[in-house]
Structure formats: C-alpha cells, structure tokens
Amino acid sequence: MLSITSQYLARYRHHTAGDRSGALLPVTGAQRRFVLVRSLDPSGRPDVVPMFFAFPHDTIDPERLRSAARRLAARHTALRSRPVVVRGTPVLRVGEPDVCVTRPASAPGERPADTLRRALAAWDPQGPPLRLFLARDDEDRKEDILAVVLDHAVCDGRSLARIVEDLGAAYAEDAGAARFSPEETQAELVAYREAVLLQLAAEDRAETPEAVAYWADRLRALRAQAPPPRPDRVPDGTLPSGAAQAVLPAHDGGVPFPDLLDACRAAARALYGPGHVVPLGYPWGGRPAGAETVVGCFLNTVVFPATTGQDSAAGATADAWWDDLDRADAPFDAVVAGARSAGSGWTGSLDGLLTVDDDSRRPPLVLAGVEGREADVDGRQVRGPFAVSVTQGAEIRLRMVWDRAVLDDDTAHGAFDALTQALCPSERAVN
Fold first, then answer.
1. Alpha-carbon Rg of the chain, whole angstroms?
2. Sign of CA dihedral 374, 378, 382, 386
3. What is the 3-state secondary structure (H, E, C) of 162-195?
4. DSSP state, 365?
C-alpha cells in the first residue's frame, strides 16, 4: 500500500501536471497538518506565529519598514506563498511579495499591547502569510510595539531567527534598493522546491509499516481529555487566554528534554486528573540532509502519550523518548491514521503543546542600529487547551498559556505550579 506521503505526491503531480508557471508548490507533512487544522476551524482561522518587539517611541519609519518587509518576502519563497487547497490537495501558491505595515488605530486610553491584541483577533485568513503591525504609544510616548506575524504554514521555529536577521538587514539597506533579480528569485524558488521534495522523500522513507505499527501501539490508549470550548466561560471584558510565567535557575547543559516531558505530564495531571493518557505534542526535526537552509515549515509534530497516573520509573520517559525519536520523521497525519486503524478513538487533537528554544538562537531585531526588546502580548486567542514554552540559556524562562474557553484560571494556575515544581522543587511559580 502506498504511504500517505506517496499518495499526496501522486495527487500533487496529477493536479499540477499542466501548470507550466511553477506557481504551485508541494507542502511538507508539517504544512499538511496546519492546512488541515485551518480547514477544520469554523472561521478558517490559521495558526499564526507572532513576534513582538518594543522600540523607543517614534523610532520606526513605517514606509522604510514596509519596503524592507517586501524585500524580505521577495528573498524567501515561503513568505510570498499562500496555503491553498486545489481539488482536495493542499499546496502553496507562489505570488508577488505582498506585505504591508498596518498601524491599527488605538481606542481612547488603550495601550499598544491592547491595540495589537485586537488587530490579531481580526486577522483575515485570506491575506498574505507575512504581516507587520505597528502599535504606537502616542499617550506616554515611551515605547511602540512592532508585531511581525506569520502564518505557521510558511514558517517554523528554526525560520524565525533568519526572518528577524534578514528583516533587520533589509531595513538597513537603501529604501530604494532593488529587490532580488529574476534570476535570484528563480534560484531561491528552485532551492525551496528541492528542500520540500527532499523532506517529502525523508517522510516517505520514515513512513514504514514498522514505524506506523510502533506509533499505533504507542498511542493506542490516547484520548483527548480537555473539555470542549465553551465561550460562555469567558465573561465579557475578559481576555480569551490566560498566561503564567516563571524564571528558574539554569541547569548545566539545559534541562533534559525527557524531564520537560515529565513536567508537562505533571501539568496534564493537574488539568485533567489521574488515570488518563493525554496527547501532548512537540515540534521536532529540521531541514533534510542536502537541502538549503530555506525559510519554511519543516518541523514535524511528534506526539507524547502523557500518562497521568503515578510518576514513571526513573529513566522510563527517557527510554521511551529515545525510541520515539527513531520514528520521529513519520508525518503526523500518518501517525494519526495508524493509531485510528489500530482502534484508537483519538482524532489527532492535542491537549497540550511543548516548545523549547535556546536563547542564543534568538537574535534581537535591530532596525537602523536600534535594538528592539522582545515583548509578550498576553491574552491573545490560542490554539488548543494549553501550551508550554521553555527558553533555556543563562536562566530558564518558563511560560504557559491556556484557552479560557476550555480551562478555568484556578485549575490552570495549579497546573503551572505543578509544572514549575516538577522542574525545580524549591521554586514557586511567578504568575
């Protein structure tokens, strides 16, 4: 039987056989997941990745920034491509760079973070994949906040540093500088297409009957445990999501990933109770061997079955995780299909998500010599019941957000305390 990846490629090639423009590109397994999630959302809302940078008031030139953003999009095929579905087959449609810098109007007394929160809530799913929003502080005249926001289907965590660096470099160029030449644009498109095809080949090799059977057995007992969203849980005037954060002492060499998984298991137990096997996801992977380091979405979502009963025996999570990594390239949709074919009732929804960053890989955004301070804008809509982000470096920055339509604040704060205590028993969460 053909793998899901092979079936996808066959459909893609059939639908694009007469397309001489080369404007329709195949998508990776990671992109297929995001396109599917978007199609299941009643409003067609995509997953978006925002980065927020605070700059001294009135230091950003919006027109210069707009020109820089368009040159950035011209340099990276993914940033001028929109996810679309052609006769049931997801693809990227390549277009011209279409990036604008929006300056959303502030309501009386509204802070820049509030203005940006409103702007992102009104995100038009039919618009370009890269958008910039500049919220100015015209009252206190202290800091403006720039939001660089991307459709997750065109970027992953490993693309963000490149995007930040290239946007700063483009801003430093003469505003009238020419964009990529047609030859450079075509060469980058070819490199991007080749990287995606290499990724699909790697996914096809990983999607063996043995790997699918492994995941089917590993995930057989999974059941999504989060209650369904209830908008009435969120009173009028309350932000749609909650957040908590803490700063913990650094570990030599960083916290081992299995320990982070066990900490998320403790949070899941506090949220959903004991005696469950909860689906937690985390991104893993990278660009395929031999591919250019193009901007795009290549990281697979790997599923960790978090058992919320008694703590596992010492080393058990690490042993299982290493076994998982041997099959981590199997694409998410193939893993879900394998689990369901084995009798699991799991539909592919995740009850939690874990992301881990190294702060040495998070360069600041520098515009004309001015370094922006990375900022948080809490209260935005979030996808899924809860998400944990860990940034490791000279200290550990731990952050958790949750959907208030799914989880109440008291329960979520208790889960964050459990998460923090699992990582550093002597610390209390700072919410």
1. 22
2. positive
3. HHHHHHHHHHHCCCCCCCCCHHHHHHHHHHHHHH
4. P
Cβ atoms of residues 112 and 136 within 8 Å: yes
Amino acid residing at 146: L
Name the one residue in this structure whose structure tokens are 């793998």: 3
Query: Amino acid identity of 108?
Result: P
User: How many CB atoms sit inside 10 A of residue 214's CB?
Assistant: 18
Query: What pLDDT, on a 0 to 100 scale, did the predictor assign at position 429?
Result: 46
Give the position of tokens 């995001």. 34
> For residues 74 and 180, is the Cβ–Cβ distance under 8 A?
yes
Convert the pLDDT of each residue in 389-425 to its tens digit.
999 988 999 999 999 999 999 999 999 999 999 998 7
Helix (H, G, I), strand (E, B) or coil at 430: strand
Query: The pTM is what?
Result: 0.93
CA 152 to chain centre: 6
DSSP string over 265-310: HHHHHHHH-SS-EEEEEEEE--SPTT----SS--PEEEEEEEE-SS
